[in-house]
Design goal:
Length: about 350
């Protein structure tokens, strides 16, 4: 199970997470306490890299072969202190961020009562660390369709990846997730991010606090978007095109070339597996029959998020949780929200 979801260690409070993994903690915890409960209270260090000075005799299959060593100039390894596990190669300019100092971002908000720590853990054998804090504010759509807001923080111990903070919503009825960008000085692309090229100083800490502090605005914006989507009906023709745009754009291109459009079968009959799952999820996924979702663009969006989070088979390669929050799955869901809004507006 751990290999499937790439979860190394994890702690959570409250309901079992949608991916079903982790160790439950009973009490409301501070960021520091959650750090320890999730077993991510370890440190990393940048250590010099070496190579052999005798390539003519060095045998990779015989570790007992004697050879001298040379310092590999400007090359290092990022190593976990608790077990000396090498997490990533890195260069001279790489600045490691410690798990404890990154998780400390949440302290100001948990102490003020505006957030509570929900989960924290390690992905991909320590290469990615995350913390998830629940925002006190939440909202409900028609039929008691509850949606909660969360702040998701990811500290990566891999060269080329930044420390990121994102807003994510979770739909209670099905645990669908949807991450969205936070605004701020360090925002780049679709998330607040800080590259490991500078010291973890007061400027970064303040900027991250500002990003976390506007999470209430993000929650309000998503509430307005969700209410708009539930107010707009999704016709079958538009729904099929929406799904095809997300998962099979080439199908639309090929069908447009047909000389006799009237002779073409309904678009959904030509869907491949993932698109077919989404089309089915519009009617059959958890919460599909709620007044907020049945026949609406809110329901269409959640059909996508449900399949990406819970059913897409490509996730079984070892990245289900990582993809849903940080990778291709998260990107697909953000695109699905944008397109759903476009269709609803038209």
């Amino acid at each position: 199970i751990q290999m499937t979801h790439a979860v190394e260690t994890m702690a959570y409070k409250g309901e079992v997470p949608w991916h079903g993994l982790g160790t439950e903690v009973n009490n409301t915890m501070s960021p520091k306490e959650m750090l320890k409960a999730a077993q991510i209270d370890w440190t990393v260090s940048k250590r010099p890299a070496y190579t052999t000075d005798r390539p003519d005799v060095w045998n990779l299959n015989d570790p007992t072969e004697e050879a001298g060593f040379l310092r590999a100039s400007d090359q290092y390894f990022l190593v976990r202190a608790s077990d000396n596990k090498i997490l990533s190669p890195c260069g001279e300019s790489y600045v490691p961020f410690q798990n404890a100092e990154v998780m400390d971002f949440f302290k100001k908000f948990t102490e003020a009562g505006s957030m509570t720590m929900e989960t924290a853990g390690s992905l991909k054998e320590g290469k990615d660390i995350w913390g998830l804090a629940k925002i006190t504010d939440k909202f409900s759509l028609s039929g008691g369709d509850e949606v909660g807001g969360y702040l998701l923080l990811n500290n990566s111990h891999q060269v080329g990846k930044a420390m990121t903070v994102m807003f994510t919503s979770i739909r209670v009825v099905c645990n669908n997730t949807l991450t969205m960008a936070l605004k701020g000085h360090y925002t780049e692309g679709n998330r607040f991010r800080v590259l490991h090229l500078q010291m973890f100083d007061e400027e970064i800490h303040k900027a991250a606090e500002e990003a976390l502090g506007i999470s209430g605005q993000q929650m309000q914006q998503f509430k307005e978007q969700s209410e708009f989507l539930e107010s707009k009906r999704a016709k079958e023709f538009d729904l099929s095109n929406y799904i095809a745009e997300l998962f099979q754009p080439n199908l639309l291109i090929e069908r447009a070339k047909a000389a006799d459009q009237a002779a073409l079968p309904p678009l959904y009959q030509e869907f491949a597996r993932t698109a077919e799952l989404v089309h089915e999820a519009v009617e059959c996924s958890p919460g599909a029959n709620l007044a907020s979702a049945k026949g609406t663009w809110w329901g269409a969006l959640n059909a996508v998020t449900y399949v990406v989070d819970h059913q897409k088979k490509s996730m079984a390669e070892g990245n289900a949780l990582h993809s849903a929050w940080f990778g291709s799955g998260a990107n697909t869901k953000r695109k699905a929200l944008a397109k759903a809004l476009e269709y609803a507006e038209s």
